[in-house]
Amino acid sequence: MLEQLKEEEIVNKVGGRFKLSTLIQKRMVQLNNGAHPLVDLRTTDRMAVVLEEILQDKIYLDTSGNMHTISSDYTSGLTGV
Predict the structure, then answer these.
(1) Total-model pTM
(2) CATH 3.90.940 is held by the domain 2-76
(3) Which one, 56, 61, 79, 80, has the greatest CB density within 10 A?
């Protein structure tokens, strides 16, 4: 898991180390408050879940630094408008 953080792929996917840190922190708060994982992993390691969600493009930061999940965007009507 920590090896994924050292790879530039995940850093570049999010747009930099600061954005990666922000995205991880925001998603960890959601998971700790009872949000359901968006990926099917057989683990209780929330950090592993968050990293996999990022790698599978399930979560992202918008240009204002707000975190979005793919499922919440579709249910709220934000489909790329």
Answers:
(1) 0.79
(2) yes
(3) 61
